[in-house]
Amino acid sequence: MIFPAEQPIVTIGDLRLRPLKINDDKDLYAYFSKDEVTEFYDLFTFKSTDEATQLIQTWIERTVLKQGIRWAITYKEEDKLVGTCGFHNLSEENNRAEIGYDLHPDLWGKGYMTQIVSFLIEYGFKNMNLHRVEAFIDPSHHASRKVLTKNGMQTEGILRDYFFEKGRFVDAEMIAILNK
Question: Among 69, 62, 82, which Cα is nearest to 123's?
Fold first, then answer.
């Protein structure tokens, strides 16, 4: 696995991916404070911008320590955070990484995340030399499954009670694509 020396800035249609900044916290809070955004996320709905600041700090630290890469998703013409995406749970030994993403609900259903996941898969295979890109979703998160399968990812199975989130065990659907 190859970790990029520098996190690239990428334009995808009307959106731009750039490194996260601490001052993205208010924009992140604006949508992580909505129950519909955190419904399938492993975090409770945010009650303060401090929670957003802490999450951004975690993502930045993981990038610095080469434990992951997380991009801010902004409008191409306006540097306003409307989502994030990237790689985590990197396994150098196995040349694989898990992708994750979130998006402001005002942009749901417009095809943006399908384009972004396409970029992540291509970037992972071509730039990071990954053999496998995977994602875990809640089996009832049909919109996320649709985004992933549109990009050639396939369900490999359901892992029962795989994660303990928000005080309860939840199933995880494993979806992946191989670099062949």
Answer: 69
CATH number, domain of 26, equals 3.40.630.30
The single residue listed with the structure tokens 């396994």 is: 91
pLDDT digits (tens, 9 = 90+) for 12-48: 999 999 999 999 999 999 999 999 999 999 999 999 9
Q: Is 45 helix (H, G, I), strand (E, B) or coil?
A: coil
Between CA 154 and CA 131 the distance in angstroms is 15
Domain count, the chain: 1
**Which residues constitute the domain of residue 113?**
10-178
* Calpha distance 122→99 (Å, rounded): 12
Segment 49-91, tens digit of pLDDT: 999 999 999 999 999 999 999 999 999 999 999 999 999 999 9
Cα 94 to its chain centre, rounded Å, is: 20
- Judge if pTM exceeds 0.90: yes
**Tens of pLDDT, residues 5-21:** 889 999 999 999 999 99
The full DSSP string for 117-180 is HHHHHHHHHHTS--SEEEEEE-TT-HHHHHHHHHTT-EEEEEEEEEEEETTEEEEEEEEEEE--
